[in-house]
Specification:
222 residues, 5-stranded antiparallel beta sheet, single chain
């Protein structure tokens, strides 16, 4: 089953992980973990080659930094043949577009939201291409203040019944920086080589408030 990103106008303004949510039989949970038919026993291939960088916890970060406009299609194979690893039950194949033209190119993307507090995401993707050589960088920033409010009621029964109300308010200031720098060389249409360096830092400042009220309920006997 193949999902064509060239036919989807949202691919021009989205990253690869967001487009994975549209691929049949593929799910992306709230923690950006990818599953195929409810299982994590799959392997991702990029242009016909297995990609170790697109496996495990690294997959979501790499796909977030990859512009969806650079991908031609995403193919799902639920019954891979003998040319694939026998231990892998399913395969996801990503086929990217061939680079065209020389010079500088880039995209700037911003996404803002408000859920009790304001949060934002900014992304910059820059490239320079000459001949078959391409230099690229992806810079990402995620920031905002997050809020949660929980209210718990507890009842403890014994000779005396105790009722307890626990209220917790959590606020957290989050700043995450993530970047990737690399190069690739397209030797021919079927052969290429490349490398990149990826790193990031997350700065979090939590603040929590707790309050608890306990009271006893007595039963008077006549």
């Amino acid at each position: 089953m193949t999902y064509s990103l060239e036919d989807d106008p949202e691919a021009k303004t989205s990253n690869a992980l967001e487009m994975f949510r549209k691929v049949p039989m593929v799910t992306v949970d709230g923690e950006d973990k990818i599953q195929l038919k409810g299982s994590s026993n799959y392997k991702i291939y990029m242009n016909g080659k297995p990609s170790n960088l697109l496996s495990g916890d690294n997959a979501s970060d790499v796909l977030k930094s990859m512009p969806a406009s650079s991908i031609k299609n995403i193919e799902v194979i639920t019954d891979p043949g003998s040319k694939y690893d026998a231990s892998v039950k399913s395969v996801i194949r990503i086929r990217t577009k061939l680079p065209q033209g020389d010079g500088f190119s880039g995209t700037l993307r911003a996404q803002n939201g408000f859920r009790h507090y304001f949060s934002s995401m900014e992304q910059a993707n820059l490239k320079y291409r000459t001949g078959g050589l391409e230099l690229f960088t992806n810079l990402n920033y995620y920031g905002g203040k997050f809020y949660s409010h929980e209210n718990t009621n507890m009842e403890t029964q014994g000779s005396t019944t105790w009722l307890q109300n626990i209220e917790s308010i959590n606020r957290m200031r989050n700043n995450e920086f993530f970047g990737k720098f690399g190069l690739s060389w397209m030797i021919s249409e079927r052969h290429s080589i490349g490398a990149y360096y990826m790193n990031g830092v997350g700065l979090q400042k939590p603040h929590s408030d707790y309050s608890s009220i306990s009271y006893a309920v007595f039963c008077l006997k006549k």
